[in-house]
Amino acid sequence: MRYGVFASLLLHACALGLAFISLPDFLRTKVVDAPVIPIDLIDEAEFAELTSVPAMAPKPKPKEEMPPELPKPKAEEPKPTPKAEAEPEPQPEPAPEKKPEPKPEAAKPKPQPKPKSKPKQEDLDLDALSALVDKSRKAEPSSGEDSSAVLEADRAQEAIGAGDRLTATEIDKMRAAVSRCWNASAIIGAPEPEKLVVVLDIDLNRDGTLAGAPRVVNAIEINLSGNRFWKVAEQNAIRAVQACQPYDFLDPARYQDWKAFTLNFDPSQMAGF
Amino acid sequence: MRQPILAIFAAIVAAFGAAQARVRIDITQANIEPMPVAVPDFLGADGRMTDLGRDITGVIMADLDRSGLFSVIDQRAYVEKLTSVDVRPRFADWRIINAQVLVAGEVRPTPDGRIEVATRVWDVYSNEQLGAVSFKTPSDNWRRAAHKVADFVYKSLTGEEGYFDTRVVYIHETGPKEKRTKRLMIMDQDGANPVLLTDGLNYQALTPRFSPTQQQITYMALFDNRPGQVYLFNIETGEQEQLGTFRGMTFAPRFTPDGTRVLMSMERAGNSDVFMMELATRRLTRLTDNPGIDTSPTMSPDGRRVAFTSDRGGTEQIYVMNADGSAPKRITFGEGRYQTPVWSPRGDLVAFTRQYQGRFYIGVIRPDGTGERLLTESYLDEGPTWAPNGRVIMFFREQSPGAGPTLWSIDLTGRNLRRVRTPGDASDPAWSPPLP
Questions:
Q1: Is this complex scored with an ipTM above 0.85?
Q2: Which of A223, B180, B351, B355 has the highest CB neighbour count under 10 A?
Q3: Which class would CATH give B35-158?
Q4: How near does any CA of chain B get to the CA of A111, in Å?
Q5: Is cis: bond before A82, omega within 30 of 0?
Q6: Which fold has domain B167-431?
Q7: CB distance B395 to B378 below 8 Å
Q8: pTM for this structure?
Q9: CB atoms A182 and B27 under 8 Å
């Protein structure tokens, strides 16, 4: 009888003792040492420079060499046949083109209607195109030589699109600027406003003003549809882009990155008012 | 032969290498502020023409402002003083005040004693003329000429026909609440020229409805001692014709878009159904045959379908059926009661009144039942009527119990809610088609 009570008391004491020792451990939360990630706050100009290969300063030189062969606006477009383009508004183009005329036959096909001039243009284009090929090959090595004056990138990224990257912030600024001037109050009440998409190509000068009138990429589609609300949407988009110039919040030192835009005016997300 | 192909191929590669990629940006949000427009006073050669020009300009500015799509810039801010409507303006002067569009005009007398109102609409940023128009009219008809100019500007800038050269007929209510006198009144859509059409002595006028093809109104006349009559009132001649005694009719019939037939709901033996009557032959065709109460029919502008209210499903909801009465299909499924459907003249929407938990709402829904949107809400909003271009809805509202009804208008996007000024209480508006 006495052994039982004694054993029971002993075991109870052991249990209590264990509790005193180990319970606090369960209640205490463990502190884990997380690895510290160092953060560096930089502005967008630095970010742009870190993620791209700047090729600013040397560019003006090859630009001056190219116009005698093919005028500037043509050279920018990534189309395989720079001459034969389906453009509804050729007016700003013929003006600068006619000025440098060491190749008169290159300038002639433009005023003629496109289907007729296509076979002719192919013959002429070849000389111009092969000359272009030579020029660009000459231009790139020279730009590499002159890059000593420009900051070096942290990481070597030469293979990626020659550094023509705008930062997300700059794209947002451009989008906000154009949105502010795009007056859509007339078209959201139109029937099926989600179909009234207008795509504009714009070129900018260094000071942010428009270099020539905006080109409507889907102009033929708009004209053929006979939808007068679409025509109004086209006028609204052109007016928006013209009203908001100059776009002078973009860094002039990186002009090459932002001199050409394609703006896609899409009212479908506003169709729910 | 291989040489040119190689050159082309090389050129394509080089073109991609030498060319700069265009940065593509999606613009999905816009500024839904009204478009700033400049409207200088219309020019005139002598004092009378200048005064007319000023009046016409005032009406045009009010119309454009009231539409909610344009904001007319104060004339005191204008820099250039135009001297002739045929000369190109100095666009830089108009750009400074942020005008996107300039409306320039002139009033000239014609040899036969009328006036000619000539207008040019200029796009200030692209330096181009958007359109030009001129109207000849007797000089006391200058208000209509001003409305027609405003319609032209509206159409040039939105692609939609304007609605400014129209009239609105409504019920002019006077007297204490228990003993209201209801008379038919007509006015220009901007509130000008209100004219009483009935005298209210013998009967109460209710539910006026406009014919879409002629300047005619049908309305219900309620008498004290005899059954209600439907009258056909010709606005131009002032003649009234009795359309007939339709026993059991509680509101005026609605015209079909071609103006040759009327849709009505008639009560027989406690049941209400939709009928169509040919005006020329007076032949009645039954369109619904259902123990539920079918009422308030309205026809689509293409004449193929009819929307109406029916409580056959338990509560009042809106149904759409073919014009011969076949295939009725319910299109509203929300809580509450849906009534007074009115098909938009543009055909893409049906406006209705919805009642839910003691509040009234004016809303629109597509004829297939999708896209229901509520535009307004108040203690009592009822009786929507569409402007002839299908963009603006007018309705009447009682803001609180005991407050008299007043007319209001709202854009179909739910913006630009405005009070329509009337001399006294007004209800049951009906919008006319564009005046000839």
A1: no
A2: B351
A3: alpha beta
A4: 23
A5: no
A6: Neuraminidase (2.120.10)
A7: no
A8: 0.72
A9: yes
